[in-house]
Amino acid sequence: MNLIDRLTNDMKEAMKAREKARLSVIRMLKTSLHNESIKTGNQLSDEEALAVLTRELKQRKDSLQEFENAGRHDLVDEVSFEIAIVQSYLPEQLSEDDVQSIVDETISEVGAVSKADIGKVMKAIMPKVKGRADGSLINRLVRGKLN
C-alpha cells in the first residue's frame, strides 16, 4: 500500500473514531501531497511523497523550537502531537551511530579530507539516508569529521 492510500485509510479511521486532532493532521498531510502533485504536474512517487513528509516534519520541528523559546507550552503540546503523527508515516529513523558509520563510509568513498569537501560528502550521503535521518544531524557529523 502506498503512502497516499495509507493516509486515506487512516483518515477514514480517524473520522469514524472522531479523532479530530489526528484527522486534522492527516488532512494537512494529504493536502501537502496533493499540492505537490499539482505543482509537479504528475502523480507523486513514494520517494517524492516521502520528501514532502520530511519537509512537513522539519517545519513542525522548527515551529516546536520557536514555541519552546517563546514559552508557548499550549502550542508545544499541539505541535509535538503533529510531529508524532507525521513521524508515523516516515520510515524508521537511523540512530546516530548508524548515521556516523554511513558518514565515515561515504567520506572514505568520496576521498574527502577537508572542509572544502563537505558539499561532495553531503551530496553522496543524502540519497543513502533519504527520509531516514535528519539533514542537520548529518551535516553536524560530517563537519565534525572533516574539521
Automatic annotation (TrEMBL):
InterPro entries: Asn/Gln_tRNA_amidoTrase-B-like, GatB_Yqey_C_2, YqeY/Aim41, YqeY/Aim41_N
One Pfam family matching this protein: YqeY
Gene3D superfamilies: 1.10.10.410, Uncharacterised protein YqeY/AIM41 PF09424, N-terminal domain (1.10.1510.10)
Protein known as: Uncharacterized protein YqeY
The organism's taxonomic lineage, starting at the top: Bacteria, Bacillati, Bacillota, Bacilli, Bacillales
